[in-house]
Amino acid sequence: MSRHDAPGSQATLPPEIEDPSPFSEPWEAQAFAMVVGLHQQGVFSWSEWATALSAELKRPDAATDGSDYYECWLRALEQLLGNKQIAETGQIDAVAAAWARAAHATPHGQPILLKNDPQDANR
Amino acid sequence: MAARVRALEMILSEKGLIDPAAIDVIVDTYQNKVGPQNGARVVAKAWCDQTFADWLRSDATAAIASLGFTGRQGEHMRAVFNTPQTHNIVVCTLCSCYPWSVLGLPPVWYKSPPYRSRAVMDPRGVLEEFGVTLDKDIKIRFWDSTAELRYLVVPMRPAGSEEMSEDDLCTLVTRDSMIGTGLAELPR
């Protein structure tokens, strides 16, 4: 019997993803690489990172199959950057919202640029 | 999520803390260049070369680095050898610390809460889910990875592989056998 055949229960291990890529969406790879890059720059130590990530993974609302692993990863990164006063949540929210508006306003096939945000004051 | 990651990337690169080109290199490295083939090389070499095996046992960080596989988080490596009496299994109960330089990025199940808790409480049950049934006399030892110390399981060399070259032996060493949730494959 392989673990794929195991009866479904909360404690069952999640099945292996068939995709050999360790990331299911590009943003996961970007978020992963940013943490590795920031650590290489000495912004935080790897134990600091492990502690921050662990805190997010242990939240009671974390998915039991690990499917939100990179969401936890990203929250841990935001938390750590906030604590170090490098980037505040409000600032990330604002840039992310501008980015989403710009993406919406950009015709399909064109590169998305932040200046395409219809609410951009610098337009 | 994608917009938040773009936003962070923009904020951090404006502050000079990350270089988007370097981020792309890191993604490419972990997606395409590092993976269990690195660990398989370490294990196959240890099977063929007793001096290397002894070095791996006493100073895994240096022995593994001698093959060109070095960690980027400054972590130390320890190799744990399976024997006829003891089977080793690796877990990270804290988060998902994993020997990236030799195994690439961890599989989904390694990061999941059930594996992280059950590998400690019920390692035999976990192994059975992976299709590995060990004799009751075999002791199972679990190793809890940390940010500073990560483990590589050296599975036992399978019977019938005595004549095989190091390159051919690499094909028998699966990722799971180096985490301890599997055994090395038998030669065909």
Which blocks of ≥5 consecutive residues of chain B have pLDDT under 50? none
Number of domains as seen in the coordinates of chain B: 2
Q: What's the CATH architecture of the largest domain in chain B? A: Alpha-Beta Complex
The best one-word shape of chain A is: globular
The tally of helices of chain A reads 4
Average of per-residue pLDDT values of chain B: 91
Number of strands of chain A: 0
Radius of gyration of chain B: 18 Å
What is the H/E order of chain A? HHHH
The first-level CATH class of the largest domain in chain B is given as: Alpha Beta
**How many domains, in number, for the residues of chain A?**
2
Q: What quaternary form is this?
A: heterodimer
Number of helices of chain B: 11
Low-confidence stretches of chain A: 1-10
Please list the strands of the largest sheet of chain B in the order they lie side by side. 1-4
The CATH superfamily of the largest domain in chain B is known as Nitrile hydratase alpha /Thiocyanate hydrolase gamma
Distance between the termini of chain A: 61 Å
Give the percentage of residues in beta strands of chain B. 5-15%
Structural class of chain B: alpha/beta
Kindly report the greatest chain-chain contact and the residue count on each side. A-B, 63 and 51 residues
CATH topology of the largest domain in chain B: Nitrile Hydratase, Chain A
Describe it for me?
The complex is a heterodimer of chains A (123) and B (188). Chain A folds into two domains: 29-87, no CATH class; 89-123, no CATH class. Chain A contains four helices and no strands. Chain A has helices at residues 26-40, 46-57, 69-83, 89-105. Chain A is globular and about 45 Å long. In chain A, 31% of the residues are buried. Residues 1-10 of chain A have low confidence and may be disordered. A two-stranded parallel ribbon of chain B has the order 1-4. Chain B has helices at 2-14, 20-33, 36-48, 50-58, 60-65, 100-103, 108-111, 113-121, 123-129, 166-170, 175-179; strands at residues 76-81, 86-91, 139-144, 149-154. Chain B is 47% helix and 13% strand. Chain B folds into two domains: 1-33, no CATH class; 37-179, Nitrile hydratase alpha /Thiocyanate hydrolase gamma (Nitrile Hydratase, Chain A, Alpha-Beta Complex). With 188 residues, chain B is of the alpha/beta class. At the A-B interface, helix 1, helix 2, helix 3 and helix 4 of A face helix 1, helix 2, helix 7, helix 8 and helix 9 of B.
